[in-house]
Amino acid sequence: MATAVNVSATNNAEIDGLLSGYKWTGTITYSFPDASSDYPNPYYGDGEPTTSGFASAPTQIQAAINYAIGLILGYTNANIQYAGTNGADIMIAQSPAANPTAYAYYPFNYAPGGDIWFGTQYNFSLAMLGNYYFTTALHELGHALGLKHSQEAGGPANVAVPSAHDSSEYTVMSYRSYVGASTTGGYTNEAYGYSQTYMANDILALQTMYGVDYTTQSSNTVYTWNSTTGQQFINGVGQLAPGGGVGGSANRIYETVWDGGGVDTYDLSNYTTNLSINLNPGASSVFSFVQLAYLGDGHYASGNVYNAYLYNGDARSYIDNAIGGSGTDTIIGNAIANTLNGGGGNDTITGGAGNDTITGGAGTDTAVYSGNKASYAIAYDSTTQIFTIVDQRSGSPDGIDTIAGVENFQFGDGTVAGTTLMNNLQPAGAGWVATIAQDFNNDGNDDILWLQPATGAGEIVYLSNGTVISSASFATPGQGWVVIGHGDYNHDGNTDLLWQNTTTLRATEYFLVNGHTVSTQDVGVMSADWHVISSADLNGDGTDDLLWQNQTTGVGLEWFMNNGLAPSYAYVGTMGTNWKVASTNDLNHDGTADLLWQETTTNEGVEWFFTNGLATSWARVGTMGPGWDVAATADFNHDGRVDLLWQNETSGRLVEWFVNDEGLAFDWKDLGTADHNWKVAGLLDLDAVTGPMILMQNAATGVTTEISSTAAGSANSLASSSASPSKVQLPSASAQSSSGDATAGEYIVQRSLTNSFLESDFQLQENDLKHTADLHDFMLL
């Protein structure tokens, strides 16, 4: 026999509003007495056992009580045992003393404590799942175990359940059929419109008193329902059917599901209606309007199936997955990793938090995300046709989702077609840096090498006519290595990579074929002052060479490569320690790579034109002024000449200078102003017909996008201003060293280098250079 004890308040009105203040401890017994003599004498109640008309509870009510106890045993750790027709803690029978309906006594250590009495005025033999008589059994058993009416104050906290949850949708202990209904006019539910289980607040209150059973359906469980009878099936096993399974007006689903663990699925694939499935705790799902319970006065239940609350945030009772039907469904996931399948129809699916797997299925489907598109890293694998979407906001509120069969993606700032996102250039995950844009697979289209410095990971995204066709991981030397050059170092027609260790300064070549490393070559190590700053074909032999620079003296050194080795070298000279090489490209259209130097304070530019590895002439490029850097060089106007792309480091503004055959700028174009976080990451030659696309990466978010280098006065979606700069600072014709304030389009004065290299701006004296650096400063391996 059990003992009644007191229950303390929890300070949560959702729970306290249902606590009477009493519960049982120990093994609880129940029985269905068939004679008055089964009760103690004296009984101290209202004379129920001895009132004329006493009878055992109808078999239908006994079935309802057994069903309700089965539910409670699944929710809680209560130990409840059947005691036949004899005495027990909870004794259930029928007596006219309980007219007109029914009542029960709270747990108490005296004879009537916990007993349930059904009156004789109502025909309780009509009890069937979903009707008033059946649900009354659940209600009275709730009292017998310590639940009070939800609409009444009292209990250890002297509170009622909050009004938003004081109705039959949340508790069988309420007198309100729907939120806001009267408590004195009686229930207004339709005949089979009553709760079929204990509801979410009931379950939480019972678990508070008797503990939580996480073993209930703790394996992988699939829940299904019959669309014509409302019967539930658990892993294919039919449960008690509403109205005995006759369908028609009994075809209602009005229940709460508690599942203790495992991977659990709501499978509604048999439904043709427009489903609304929500897996969040306490939320409800609508399978069919026909199957919604009518609660009276124009009110319908908000759902067919409600999810139980989490107990103290324990994630084991989440429902994990959902499968939609053939209608236009709306599916919402919860905080854990969900697998959501829309099935047929045009579905809308929200994964929410957690790393979700979303499958749209047939129809035109939409995946919904809470943030703006720029907050996500989006990757598409053309082989598997799967999107990976990574929420890069703090805390990653939408997680990392894997998506297939979805046509549209809804973000906070608009809906984007999946065909557009298929062209996303960035791998999934945070911390990726767009490193090189080159044609790695020799298909005539530039691809992108991405590196993740924090992990040392690499990935190549392959493009065709500007569309992502695939991506593949790329094995790098590991953390601490950076790509410092790329070119054809072994003269096989493939793009190779030059890596350098940031600590040891050792350089290593990776020889590639179609984007795959086939061999490596250790190039060597310079002393700590020497860094590889670029690679290009400096001597016109068809093989890319390496250009080193001494970070202390500014001296440049060429290594002329042959099959990945450097059999010879030459000193380049220097513009001084405050000059950096901004580009190695064919600046004067003679077929040989040249050098573009830029001064780090004024950002003045100077070109050195090379023949057979030696600088034979030079030209002053001028400058856009302090804060402007040459971000890239390419043929932007498609006239066969290499042009300059400037970017302002503060404003993000982009300006192109168009260059003639002599390497001189003759015109310019303002592309507009981007947010200062957007930096030029590289150039993409997508079709070899129009000018290259400019690959931009946001330094704050890591997000990338492409903008056109040919659109007049536009910087695509990054532009916030297209106003032209009032002046572009180009050198005047009268003085080589001055920096005149000339308007754009003025020609740059070109001068020839003399054998004596006496120009004061240049330090090219070969004798001095030989004393500045010697062979012992580096190793040729």
Describe this structure as you would to a colleague.
The termini are far apart. This protein has 5 domains: 3-208, Collagenase (Catalytic Domain) (3-Layer(aba) Sandwich); 215-368, Serralysin-like metalloprotease, C-terminal (Alkaline Protease, subunit P, domain 1, 2 Solenoid); 433-476; 478-574 and 763-781, no CATH class; 589-753, no CATH class. The strands form 12 sheets. It has a 10-stranded mixed beta sheet with strand order 11-10-9-13-19-21-23-27-26-25, with no helix packed on it. Strands 3, 4, 5, 6, 7 and 8 form a 6-stranded mixed beta sheet that branches. Helix content is 7%, strand content 34%. InterPro entries: FG-GAP, Hemolysin-typ_Ca-bd_CS, Hemolysn_Ca-bd, Integrin_alpha_N, MetalloPept_cat_dom_sf, Pept_M10_metallopeptidase, Peptidase_M10B_C, Peptidase_Metallo. It comes from Bradyrhizobium frederickii. Residues 716-726 have a biased composition (Low complexity). It is found in: Secreted.
Share in helix: under 10%
Number of strand elements: 53
Class inferred from helices and paired strands: mainly beta
> How many domains?
5
- The oligomeric state is single chain
Unreliable stretches, pLDDT < 50, 5 or more residues? 712-781
Choose one word for the global shape: elongated
Largest sheet: 10 strands, mixed
Assigned CATH architecture of the largest domain = 3-Layer(aba) Sandwich
Mean pLDDT metric:
84
What top-tier CATH class of the largest domain fits best? Alpha Beta
The largest sheet has its strands arranged as 11-10-9-13-19-21-23-27-26-25
Strand content: 25-35%
The radius of gyration is: 39 Å
Annotated CATH homologous superfamily of the largest domain: Collagenase (Catalytic Domain)
| Number of helical elements | 6
Task: Give the N-to-C terminal Cα separation.
Answer: 90 Å
CATH topology of the largest domain: Collagenase (Catalytic Domain)
Keywords: Hydrolase, Metal-binding, Metalloprotease, Protease, Repeat, Secreted, Signal, Zinc
Family: Belongs to the peptidase M10B family.
Organism: Bradyrhizobium frederickii
GO molecular function, one term: calcium ion binding
